[in-house]
Amino acid sequence: MSALLSLSNIWVEYGDKIVIENVDLDIEEGAFVSIVGPSGAGKSSLLRIILGQEIPTRGTILLDGQRLGGECGPDRGVVFQRYSVFPHISALRNTMFGLECEQAPLSARLFGTAHKAAKAMAMEMLDAVGLADSMHLYPAQMSGGMQQRLAIAQALIKRPRILLLDEPFGALDPGIRADMHALITRLWNDYALTIIMVTHDIREAFKLGTRVLALDKRRHDPDAPHRFGATAVYDLALRNRKDRAAGEELVAASLTPKIDANPNTKESIGHG
Ligand SMILES: Nc1ncnc2c1ncn2[C@@H]1O[C@H](COP(=O)(O)OP(=O)(O)OP(=O)(O)O)[C@@H](O)[C@H]1O
Protein backbone atom coordinates (compact mmCIF):
# COMPACT_ATOMS: atom_id res chain seq x y z
CA MET A 1 0.00 0.00 0.00
CA SER A 2 1.43 3.41 -0.88
CA ALA A 3 1.66 6.03 1.83
CA LEU A 4 -0.95 8.76 2.22
CA LEU A 5 1.76 11.17 3.31
CA SER A 6 5.40 10.76 2.42
CA LEU A 7 8.17 12.96 3.81
CA SER A 8 11.63 12.47 2.44
CA ASN A 9 14.87 14.02 3.57
CA ILE A 10 13.10 16.89 5.38
CA TRP A 11 15.26 19.65 6.83
CA VAL A 12 14.08 22.71 8.74
CA GLU A 13 16.56 25.52 9.21
CA TYR A 14 16.08 29.02 10.57
CA GLY A 15 19.11 31.02 9.46
CA ASP A 16 22.12 29.00 10.55
CA LYS A 17 20.11 27.12 13.17
CA ILE A 18 19.33 23.58 12.08
CA VAL A 19 16.14 22.41 13.80
CA ILE A 20 15.31 19.21 11.92
CA GLU A 21 17.65 17.19 9.75
CA ASN A 22 16.96 14.36 7.37
CA VAL A 23 13.55 13.14 8.47
CA ASP A 24 12.01 10.40 6.32
CA LEU A 25 8.49 9.35 7.16
CA ASP A 26 5.78 7.43 5.31
CA ILE A 27 2.35 7.60 6.93
CA GLU A 28 -0.35 5.16 5.92
CA GLU A 29 -3.99 6.17 5.72
CA GLY A 30 -5.73 5.50 9.05
CA ALA A 31 -2.59 5.70 11.19
CA PHE A 32 -2.50 7.56 14.51
CA VAL A 33 1.05 8.88 14.73
CA SER A 34 2.22 10.45 17.98
CA ILE A 35 5.28 12.70 17.82
CA VAL A 36 7.32 13.19 20.99
CA GLY A 37 10.66 14.80 21.71
CA PRO A 38 12.34 17.31 23.97
CA SER A 39 11.34 20.94 23.93
CA GLY A 40 12.77 22.64 20.85
CA ALA A 41 13.22 19.37 18.90
CA GLY A 42 11.08 20.74 16.10
CA LYS A 43 7.83 18.84 16.70
CA SER A 44 5.59 21.84 16.00
CA SER A 45 7.78 22.86 13.06
CA LEU A 46 7.26 19.43 11.52
CA LEU A 47 3.50 19.73 12.04
CA ARG A 48 3.45 23.18 10.41
CA ILE A 49 5.24 21.75 7.41
CA ILE A 50 2.70 18.94 7.05
CA LEU A 51 -0.09 21.51 7.46
CA GLY A 52 1.45 23.56 4.66
CA GLN A 53 2.05 26.65 6.81
CA GLU A 54 5.79 26.39 6.23
CA ILE A 55 8.02 24.98 3.52
CA PRO A 56 10.97 22.79 4.52
CA THR A 57 14.36 24.17 3.59
CA ARG A 58 15.19 20.82 2.00
CA GLY A 59 13.25 17.71 1.11
CA THR A 60 9.85 16.87 -0.30
CA ILE A 61 6.41 16.05 1.05
CA LEU A 62 3.94 14.08 -1.03
CA LEU A 63 0.25 13.81 -0.21
CA ASP A 64 -1.32 11.03 -2.25
CA GLY A 65 1.76 11.14 -4.44
CA GLN A 66 1.34 14.88 -5.19
CA ARG A 67 3.96 17.34 -4.06
CA LEU A 68 2.78 19.68 -1.29
CA GLY A 69 3.60 23.34 -1.69
CA GLY A 70 3.30 25.88 1.10
CA GLU A 71 -0.47 25.95 1.27
CA CYS A 72 -2.99 24.65 3.80
CA GLY A 73 -5.71 22.56 2.18
CA PRO A 74 -9.11 21.28 3.33
CA ASP A 75 -7.64 17.77 3.44
CA ARG A 76 -5.71 18.78 6.60
CA GLY A 77 -7.37 20.10 9.75
CA VAL A 78 -5.52 21.29 12.83
CA VAL A 79 -6.15 21.74 16.55
CA PHE A 80 -3.67 23.65 18.71
CA GLN A 81 -3.28 23.62 22.49
CA ARG A 82 -5.47 26.69 22.83
CA TYR A 83 -6.68 29.88 21.20
CA SER A 84 -8.11 28.14 18.13
CA VAL A 85 -11.67 29.32 18.73
CA PHE A 86 -13.03 32.81 18.14
CA PRO A 87 -14.17 34.41 21.42
CA HIS A 88 -16.78 36.75 19.95
CA ILE A 89 -19.03 34.19 18.26
CA SER A 90 -21.10 31.27 19.55
CA ALA A 91 -20.08 27.61 19.43
CA LEU A 92 -22.39 27.10 16.47
CA ARG A 93 -20.94 30.00 14.49
CA ASN A 94 -17.42 28.98 15.45
CA THR A 95 -18.13 25.57 13.94
CA MET A 96 -19.80 26.95 10.82
CA PHE A 97 -17.09 29.54 10.26
CA GLY A 98 -14.80 27.34 8.16
CA LEU A 99 -17.61 26.54 5.73
CA GLU A 100 -18.73 30.18 5.62
CA CYS A 101 -15.23 31.37 4.78
CA GLU A 102 -14.81 28.69 2.15
CA GLN A 103 -18.14 29.40 0.44
CA ALA A 104 -18.32 33.18 0.99
CA PRO A 105 -14.68 34.31 1.33
CA LEU A 106 -15.51 38.04 1.38
CA SER A 107 -18.44 38.21 3.81
CA ALA A 108 -18.11 34.89 5.68
CA ARG A 109 -21.95 34.81 5.76
CA LEU A 110 -24.17 32.28 4.06
CA PHE A 111 -27.87 32.62 3.29
CA GLY A 112 -30.80 30.41 2.36
CA THR A 113 -30.10 26.76 1.63
CA ALA A 114 -26.32 27.19 1.89
CA HIS A 115 -26.75 28.56 5.42
CA LYS A 116 -29.16 25.78 6.33
CA ALA A 117 -26.78 23.09 5.04
CA ALA A 118 -23.77 24.60 6.88
CA LYS A 119 -25.80 24.87 10.10
CA ALA A 120 -26.90 21.23 9.82
CA MET A 121 -23.29 20.13 9.34
CA ALA A 122 -22.14 22.26 12.27
CA MET A 123 -24.83 20.78 14.50
CA GLU A 124 -23.78 17.29 13.47
CA MET A 125 -20.17 18.09 14.37
CA LEU A 126 -21.14 19.67 17.71
CA ASP A 127 -23.14 16.55 18.46
CA ALA A 128 -20.15 14.35 17.53
CA VAL A 129 -17.93 16.18 20.05
CA GLY A 130 -20.60 16.21 22.78
CA LEU A 131 -21.53 19.91 22.55
CA ALA A 132 -25.01 19.69 21.02
CA ASP A 133 -26.54 21.32 24.11
CA SER A 134 -23.96 24.10 24.17
CA MET A 135 -24.27 25.43 20.64
CA HIS A 136 -25.40 28.89 21.74
CA LEU A 137 -22.65 29.38 24.31
CA TYR A 138 -19.67 31.66 23.72
CA PRO A 139 -16.14 30.32 24.39
CA ALA A 140 -15.85 32.40 27.59
CA GLN A 141 -18.88 30.50 28.93
CA MET A 142 -17.20 27.14 28.24
CA SER A 143 -14.60 25.13 30.18
CA GLY A 144 -11.16 24.43 28.69
CA GLY A 145 -12.24 20.92 27.75
CA MET A 146 -15.39 22.23 26.04
CA GLN A 147 -13.31 24.77 24.10
CA GLN A 148 -11.03 21.99 22.88
CA ARG A 149 -14.07 19.96 21.83
CA LEU A 150 -15.21 23.02 19.90
CA ALA A 151 -11.79 23.38 18.28
CA ILE A 152 -12.03 19.75 17.16
CA ALA A 153 -15.52 20.33 15.72
CA GLN A 154 -14.14 23.37 13.89
CA ALA A 155 -11.30 21.32 12.44
CA LEU A 156 -13.49 18.40 11.41
CA ILE A 157 -16.32 20.28 9.71
CA LYS A 158 -14.43 20.41 6.44
CA ARG A 159 -14.02 16.65 6.68
CA PRO A 160 -10.22 16.58 6.51
CA ARG A 161 -8.52 13.26 5.86
CA ILE A 162 -5.64 14.21 8.11
CA LEU A 163 -6.12 15.75 11.54
CA LEU A 164 -3.06 17.45 13.01
CA LEU A 165 -3.05 17.93 16.78
CA ASP A 166 -0.44 20.13 18.47
CA GLU A 167 -0.51 19.46 22.23
CA PRO A 168 -4.32 19.41 22.04
CA PHE A 169 -4.85 18.26 25.62
CA GLY A 170 -1.79 19.87 27.21
CA ALA A 171 -3.74 22.54 29.08
CA LEU A 172 -6.43 20.22 30.45
CA ASP A 173 -6.81 18.53 33.84
CA PRO A 174 -6.05 14.79 33.94
CA GLY A 175 -9.71 13.70 34.26
CA ILE A 176 -10.77 15.84 31.32
CA ARG A 177 -7.77 14.58 29.35
CA ALA A 178 -8.99 11.01 29.76
CA ASP A 179 -12.42 12.04 28.38
CA MET A 180 -10.70 13.76 25.46
CA HIS A 181 -8.64 10.64 24.76
CA ALA A 182 -11.85 8.63 24.48
CA LEU A 183 -13.37 11.31 22.25
CA ILE A 184 -10.45 11.54 19.86
CA THR A 185 -10.23 7.75 19.58
CA ARG A 186 -13.93 7.58 18.72
CA LEU A 187 -13.67 10.38 16.13
CA TRP A 188 -10.56 8.77 14.61
CA ASN A 189 -12.63 5.60 14.03
CA ASP A 190 -15.95 7.21 13.08
CA TYR A 191 -14.47 9.63 10.56
CA ALA A 192 -11.73 7.28 9.28
CA LEU A 193 -9.10 9.89 10.06
CA THR A 194 -5.35 9.80 9.85
CA ILE A 195 -4.09 11.59 12.96
CA ILE A 196 -0.70 13.13 13.63
CA MET A 197 -0.41 14.38 17.21
CA VAL A 198 2.42 16.24 18.91
CA THR A 199 2.55 15.75 22.66
CA HIS A 200 4.95 16.24 25.56
CA ASP A 201 3.25 13.41 27.37
CA ILE A 202 4.92 10.11 26.53
CA ARG A 203 2.19 8.09 28.21
CA GLU A 204 -0.46 9.84 26.11
CA ALA A 205 1.62 9.23 22.96
CA PHE A 206 1.75 5.50 23.59
CA LYS A 207 -1.83 5.23 24.82
CA LEU A 208 -3.34 6.80 21.70
CA GLY A 209 -0.86 6.18 18.88
CA THR A 210 -0.58 3.25 16.52
CA ARG A 211 2.90 4.54 15.93
CA VAL A 212 5.26 6.79 17.89
CA LEU A 213 7.94 8.94 16.32
CA ALA A 214 10.54 10.35 18.70
CA LEU A 215 12.54 13.35 17.51
CA ASP A 216 15.85 14.15 19.13
CA LYS A 217 19.41 15.11 18.25
CA ARG A 218 21.74 12.25 17.45
CA ARG A 219 24.75 14.54 17.39
CA HIS A 220 25.67 17.44 19.66
CA ASP A 221 28.37 20.05 19.19
CA PRO A 222 28.90 21.75 22.58
CA ASP A 223 30.53 24.73 20.86
CA ALA A 224 27.73 25.15 18.31
CA PRO A 225 24.40 23.94 19.75
CA HIS A 226 22.51 24.71 16.54
CA ARG A 227 24.89 22.90 14.23
CA PHE A 228 22.89 19.68 14.30
CA GLY A 229 19.15 19.24 14.14
CA ALA A 230 16.82 16.64 15.55
CA THR A 231 15.89 13.59 13.55
CA ALA A 232 13.72 10.51 14.06
CA VAL A 233 15.60 8.56 16.71
CA TYR A 234 12.71 6.12 17.18
CA ASP A 235 9.88 5.18 14.88
CA LEU A 236 7.89 2.50 16.66
CA ALA A 237 4.88 0.64 15.30
CA LEU A 238 2.53 -0.34 18.14
CA ARG A 239 0.56 -3.51 17.51
CA ASN A 240 -0.38 -4.49 21.02
CA ARG A 241 -0.16 -3.66 24.70
CA LYS A 242 3.29 -5.22 25.00
CA ASP A 243 4.66 -2.96 22.22
CA ARG A 244 3.18 0.05 23.99
CA ALA A 245 4.65 -0.77 27.39
CA ALA A 246 8.12 -1.58 26.00
CA GLY A 247 8.12 1.43 23.68
CA GLU A 248 7.05 3.84 26.41
CA GLU A 249 9.82 2.64 28.70
CA LEU A 250 12.44 2.83 25.95
CA VAL A 251 11.53 6.32 24.76
CA ALA A 252 11.12 7.77 28.26
CA ALA A 253 14.58 6.50 29.19
CA SER A 254 16.35 7.58 26.02
CA LEU A 255 15.39 11.10 25.04
CA THR A 256 17.77 13.93 25.80
CA PRO A 257 17.30 14.98 29.41
CA LYS A 258 16.25 18.58 29.61
CA ILE A 259 17.73 21.30 31.78
CA ASP A 260 14.89 20.96 34.25
CA ALA A 261 14.11 17.39 35.22
CA ASN A 262 10.84 18.27 36.97
CA PRO A 263 8.15 16.25 35.16
CA ASN A 264 5.56 18.95 35.87
CA THR A 265 7.22 21.55 33.68
CA LYS A 266 6.63 21.86 29.97
CA GLU A 267 10.38 21.80 29.33
CA SER A 268 10.83 18.19 30.29
CA ILE A 269 9.85 14.97 28.65
CA GLY A 270 8.15 12.66 31.07
CA HIS A 271 4.96 10.91 31.97
CA GLY A 272 2.00 13.21 32.22
N1 LIG B 1 9.89 31.06 12.76
C1 LIG B 1 10.96 30.72 13.47
N2 LIG B 1 12.11 31.43 13.38
C2 LIG B 1 13.22 31.09 14.05
N3 LIG B 1 13.29 30.02 14.88
C3 LIG B 1 12.18 29.28 15.01
C4 LIG B 1 10.97 29.58 14.31
N4 LIG B 1 10.03 28.65 14.64
C5 LIG B 1 10.63 27.81 15.50
N5 LIG B 1 11.91 28.19 15.72
C6 LIG B 1 12.88 27.50 16.58
O1 LIG B 1 12.92 26.16 16.16
C7 LIG B 1 13.10 25.31 17.28
C8 LIG B 1 12.03 24.25 17.28
O2 LIG B 1 10.78 24.85 17.59
P1 LIG B 1 9.45 23.99 17.68
O3 LIG B 1 8.39 24.86 18.24
O4 LIG B 1 9.17 23.33 16.38
O5 LIG B 1 9.89 22.88 18.75
P2 LIG B 1 9.01 21.91 19.60
O6 LIG B 1 9.70 20.60 19.63
O7 LIG B 1 7.60 21.91 19.13
O8 LIG B 1 9.12 22.62 21.02
P3 LIG B 1 8.11 22.64 22.28
O9 LIG B 1 8.02 21.21 22.70
O10 LIG B 1 8.81 23.48 23.28
O11 LIG B 1 6.81 23.20 21.82
C9 LIG B 1 13.09 26.20 18.52
O12 LIG B 1 14.42 26.42 18.91
C10 LIG B 1 12.45 27.48 18.03
O13 LIG B 1 12.97 28.58 18.71
TrEMBL record:
Domain ABC transporter span(s) in chain numbering: 5-242
Highest taxon listed in the record's lineage: Bacteria
Keywords tagged on the record: ATP-binding, Nucleotide-binding, Transport
GO terms assigned for molecular function: ATP binding; ATP hydrolysis activity
Transmembrane segments: none
Any Pfam family the entry gives: ABC_tran
Entries under InterPro entries matching the protein: AAA+_ATPase, ABC_SmlMolc_Importer, ABC_transporter-like_ATP-bd, ABC_transporter-like_CS, P-loop_NTPase
Protein's UniProt keywords contain Transmembrane: no
PROSITE patterns (UniProt xref): ABC_TRANSPORTER_1, ABC_TRANSPORTER_2
Keyword RNA-binding attached: no
UniProt xrefs under PANTHER family: BICARBONATE TRANSPORT ATP-BINDING PROTEIN CMPC, SPERMIDINE/PUTRESCINE IMPORT ATP-BINDING PROTEIN POTA
Name of the protein this chain belongs to: ABC transporter ATP-binding protein
Natural source organism: Sphingobium fluviale
Lineage: Bacteria, Pseudomonadati, Pseudomonadota, Alphaproteobacteria, Sphingomonadales
